[in-house]
Write a structure and sequence with these properties.
The complex is a heterodimer of chains A (527) and B (382). Chain A is an alpha/beta fold and 527 residues long. In chain A, helix 3 runs antiparallel to helix 10, helix 6 crosses helix 7 and helix 10 crosses helix 13. Chain A has helices at 38-44, 68-80, 101-108, 110-113, 125-142, 154-171, 190-197, 215-221, 244-253, 346-382, 408-414, 418-425, 456-475, 477-481, 507-514, and strands spanning 146-151, 180-184, 201-205, 226-232, 257-261, 281-285, 302-306, 318-322, 325-329, 389-390, 405-406, 445-446. Chain A starts with 37 loop residues before the first helix and ends in a 13-residue tail after the last helix. Helices cover 34% and strands 10% of the residues of chain A. A seven-stranded mixed sheet of chain A has the order 1-7-6-5-4-2-3, sandwiched between helices. Chain A has a three-stranded antiparallel sheet with strand order 10-11-12, with no helix packed on it. Chain B has 382 residues and is of the alpha/beta class. Chain B has two domains: 13-218, Rossmann fold; 224-381. Helices cover 33% and strands 24% of the residues of chain B. Chain B has a nine-stranded mixed sheet with strand order 10-9-8-11-13-15-16-14-12, with helices on both faces. In chain B, strand 4, helix 6 and strand 5 form a beta-alpha-beta unit. Mean pLDDT of chain B is 83; it is low at 212-222. Classes of the chains: A alpha/beta (527), B alpha/beta (382). The A-B interface holds A 185, 192, 196, 200-208, 213, 216-217, 220-221, 411-413, 415, 417-419, 435-436, 438-441, 444, 481, 494-498, 503, 522 and B 9-10, 62, 65, 160-161, 163-164, 166-167, 174-175, 212-214, 216-217, 219-222, 338-339, 342, 347, 364-365, 367, 373-379. Strand 3 (201-205) of chain A pairs parallel with strand 16 of chain B, so a sheet runs across the interface.
Chain lengths: 527, 382
């Protein structure tokens, strides 16, 4: 392997423990509270009566009975069986970043962890200051006039935009007529999806010679029915559309609004401001670009910012600063209301604020340079691997922070698919690459993104692993097609993956569909 | 069909194989195809070697992971048995060996025997001519998939290459079902003609809908594209304006609209409706012009033919330059599955009406409807 890298042995721990619902024995307890003090019992009456009869369970819940130690051990083991999520992870479009421990310490403090959104504003000035502080930083990065952090993710922020767009045209009496949102085929699909969810028709532009739709194609799509343009730039092709200012002017001339989805901000952060390009609104993902953790549809934040003209329509509350004091503006007559409860994920906002303050303006720009440099270094090495091609190779423009690749050649020559390669890569303790947004316009796609976090050794190791798996595909395709071999579980049989009678997402559903577990589900065998 | 179940409770599968051993021979030596005895003789004289058996073996070999629960049904000799031998798959040979020089009749007989024996899928190796033979023999009775081995493969029943055909067959046989099928066009190209009129739709077969591997992994249903088109057909019918004439083009996409309206001139036919009732079926240019005389307020609904991205001039020549001039460019509505549109090699649609002025009128960026409320903009040119 190159760069003096050494192939490292890896073998995932296999615990093969039963489902927690099947563990334990009657009478085991994690925590046994002391008996009620007789004086207290005399004062309160029997503790059974503390819960009204109508609200009491007739039968105790069917929970497993385990000691605290057994529960801890079981979940520790499960945490070790995560398919190597602690390896090298170049998961494209997700902009994987390290989440500093400092952020965890800060947000574990009672000023954040114990704050309640309905408590008096005077008792949480520090929390409000952090939210306002990040608002100001994002205004500086985007040129927008106000941010709101309520959305629970990037798609939720895109949805916020479609709600704001709808309210804006309703207020002008144009909503009946303006019923179309224009997007592009490689913009994040949430743009099309959220436009449709808000009741707009979706017009999707297709790629042309330069890797993005032409100005002429946009002109042909824009009309007096255009409500908004929703685009990512660069999109997943990784090529910056240099005509974007003209795009915005064309849409504005037709009376439409323009939304810049900054899902792929890493390649351009600190280099441009959405407002200076003419955009009316934009979105950042704090759990991607701004160093806050992401996780399983959980603690994400889509920071939505807009120009003054749209601020009346934003969800509320907004944090306002008045005379050195912070307060919550809880409502506004034209507000779209809420897209999520309260103010969004405050601990994430605080972590992103900490990240942005630590990086500073120069640091953010340097991180952008690094991610573009790392991606172009990676591209040279990836294209040297047999079976790997770049999406739209005829386009000469440099890709910024990521682009899409294809294993179509490898599949044609060996029968090994990109899913097989993913399954084999995890045998080496690195994470499988992310594939592609819908729709798949290149065969067997994958989209790695090195970002600014990973060292050159990490990037090399990941590429070396892919190269090795591609070599294996040519030498011994069965080895790759039957992977993983060193992982926690073997591959699932996808034959019934869309059969609702087969899959269960709760224990109760499992028992209903399969009965007690003497029958292990077919296709879910251990490695 | 009665499916056996093996010891481990997994269903057994049966795949049929028909090889047209002479397919493709004309192409290698510069002949436009291998149809007809004279062309074949000439191909042999020019030293053509058969390639279809090798390609069929490549595709069939991809089914190795199913070997414990798969039966292969083949015709004898070079049409199948010679190909499947040595692949280590359980094989049943049907019928008597064909004559040394195989004919279209042999392909049809083999397909008929395989369908009668109850195959889950019929793989065939050949070109458009072989596809037409399969169509004549069994129609839509059994799902089929073409291993591209011919000279001309304009039909939509072929996989991208032999390996992809095997992989798609493996995927389908692992989880077969009617929901995994889509209709695909069989076409006939007249090698001796030129310009419009070369390609005509011949019929339809059912092929496994290529399930994107992402879909399999993400547990989304395979029928999304089909469902989109069905909902679109319903929306188009619901939107039809009273008093406006609608010309319904050929093909499977517009066929969904015809089905809803109870208009069925067949997959190749141009039909017409007014106020959701048929006013013409199997129309030619003259019939269309006559209808347009009566009902000048008119629209045409068109699909996209095959994988070539042809919008006009392939299989719908009834919609001639004169008809299109009368309709006007704004009154053409194009419908297509998003996947089909985005899979086009050139990301462009083509018009070839035989009249450069009409071609120009139809050129430019056009919206294609892919689902209710969803359009994709694509460039149309010659």
């Amino acid at each position: 392997m190159s760069n003096g890298g050494r192939e490292r042995r890896y073998r995932a721990p296999i615990w093969d423990e039963p489902i927690v619902m099947e563990m334990g024995a009657p009478g085991r307890r994690g925590f046994v509270p002391p008996a009620t003090d007789p004086e207290l019992a005399a004062a309160t009456g029997p503790r059974e009566d503390l819960v009204p009869a109508a609200m009491r369970r007739a039968e105790p819940p069917a929970l497993p009975e385990l000691t605290e130690f057994e529960v801890q051990r079981h979940y520790l083991h499960l945490a070790q069986e995560t398919l190597g999520m602690l390896g090298v992870n170049l998961f494209g479009t997700c902009t994987m970043k390290y989440n500093p421990r400092l952020g965890e310490h800060l947000t574990a403090r009672p000023e954040i962890a114990a704050v309640h959104p309905l408590q008096d504003e005077d008792t949480m000035q520090g929390t409000l200051a952090a939210i306002h502080g990040l608002d100001l930083i994002l205004r500086e990065l985007s040129g927008m006039d106000q941010f709101v952090f309520q959305a629970g993710g990037g798609a939720d922020a895109a949805y916020t935009n479609t709600c704001v767009t709808r309210a804006y045209y309703a207020a002008r009496g144009e909503l009946e007529r303006r019923d179309e949102v224009i997007t592009t085929i490689q913009a994040h699909p949430c743009n099309a999806a959220t436009a449709a969810a808000a009741g707009f028709k979706v017009v999707t532009l297709t790629l042309e010679e330069d890797g993005y739709p032409s100005v002429e194609q946009l002109r042909a799509a824009v009309s007096e029915r255009t409500a908004a343009l929703m685009v990512t730039n660069p999109d997943d092709m990784g090529i910056y559309n240099p005509h974007i200012k003209e795009w915005v002017e064309i849409v504005h001339a037709a009376g439409g609004l323009c939304f810049y989805d900054h899902a792929n901000f890493n390649g351009v952060m600190g280099k441009l401001r959405a407002r200076e390009l003419g955009f009316d609104a934009c979105m950042y993902m704090l759990h991607k670009t701004f160093g806050a953790p992401k996780g399983g549809g959980g603690p994400a934040v889509g920071a939505y910012g807009c120009a003054a003209e749209l601020v009346p329509f934003l969800p509320r509350p907004l944090v306002r600063r008045e005379g050195g004091r912070f307060r919550l503006e809880r409502d506004a007559p034209q507000s779209v209301g809420k897209v999520r409860e309260f103010w969004g994920n405050v601990p994430q906002i605080v972590k992103a604020y900490g990240w942005a303050r630590a990086m500073g303006g120069d640091g953010i720009e340097a991180a952008s340079d690094l991610s573009v440099l790392a991606n172009n270094y990676m591209e040279d090495r990836l294209l040297a691997i047999r079976g790997v091609t770049k999406s739209h190779p005829q386009i000469g423009a440099r890709r910024l922070e990521m682009t899409r690749y294809s294993l179509g050649t490898l599949t044609e020559e060996t029968g090994v698919t990109v899913l097989d390669v993913e399954n084999r890569m995890v045998d080496y303790g690195v994470d499988a690459p992310w594939l592609s947004h819908e729709p798949w316009i290149v065969p067997e796609p994958f989209t790695p993104e090195p970002g600014e976090l990973w060292s050159i050794e990490d990037i090399d190791y990941w590429i070396d692993t892919l190269a090795r798996v591609c070599e294996e595909a040519y030498a011994d395709p069965e080895l790759v097609k039957t992977a993983p071999h060193e992982q926690v579980i073997h591959r699932l049989d996808a034959a019934r993956i869309d059969d609702p009678d087969y899959w269960a997402t709760t224990w109760r559903a499992y028992l209903r569909k399969h009965g007690p577990r003497d029958r292990v589900p077919a296709g879910a065998s251990g490695a | 069909m009665d499916h056996q179940v093996d010891d481990s409770g997994r269903r057994r599968s049966t795949v049929g194989l028909v090889v047209n051993p002479i397919a493709g021979m004309g192409g290698r030596v510069g002949l436009g195809g291998t149809d007809g005895d004279a062309r074949l003789r000439r191909a042999r004289e020019l030293g053509a070697e058969p390639a279809a058996p090798r390609l069929a073996a490549l595709a069939l070999g991809r089914l190795a992971p199913l070997r414990d629960r798969l039966t292969v049904l083949v015709a004898p000799g070079p049409m199948g048995a010679a190909v499947s031998a040595g692949l280590g798959l359980a094989t049943t040979v049907l019928g008597a060996p064909p004559a040394a020089a195989t004919s279209a009749a042999d392909s049809r007989a083999a397909a008929t025997a395989i369908a009668a024996a109850g195959a889950d899928l019929l793989l065939f190796a050949g070109g458009d001519g072989t596809a037409r033979d399969i169509h004549d023999a069994i129609g839509g009775a059994v799902p089929v998939l073409g291993v591209p081995a011919g000279v001309k493969m304009y039909s939509g029943v072929f996989a991208r290459n032999a390996a992809a055909a095997g992989d798609a067959a493996l995927d389908f046989l692992s989880a077969p079902g009617p929901g995994r099928l889509r209709a695909a066009e069989v076409v006939d190209v007249d090698e001796d003609a030129d310009g419009p009129g070369r390609v005509r739709l011949y019929g339809e077969l059912r092929v496994p809908a290529e399930r994107s591997r992402l879909l399999a992994a993400k547990s989304r249903g395979a029928g999304d594209a089909e469902a989109d088109l069905d909902r679109l057909a319903a929306a188009v019918v619901a939107e039809m304006e009273p008093g406006r004439l609608y010309l319904l083009g050929p093909g499977t996409t517009i066929g969904r609209i015809k089905e809803r309206l109870g208009v069925d001139g067949g997959p190749l036919s141009v039909d017409a409706v007014l106020d959701r009732a048929a006013v013409g079926s199997g129309l030619g240019e003259a019939g269309l012009l006559a209808l347009l005389d009566q009902h000048p307020r008119a629209s045409a609904l068109l699909g996209v033919v095959g994988g070539q991205g042809s919008l006009l001039g392939r299989g719908n020549q009834q919609l001639s330059a004169a008809v299109l001039r009368r309709l006007g460019a704004d009154n053409l509505t194009v419908l297509a599955a998003a996947d089909k549109l985005l899979a086009l090699q050139t990301q462009r649609l083509h018009v070839d009406t035989g009249d450069p002025e009409v071609d120009r009128m139809l050129s430019g960026y056009r919206r294609v409807r892919v689902a209710p409320g969803r359009t994709i903009v694509i460039e149309v040119g010659t």
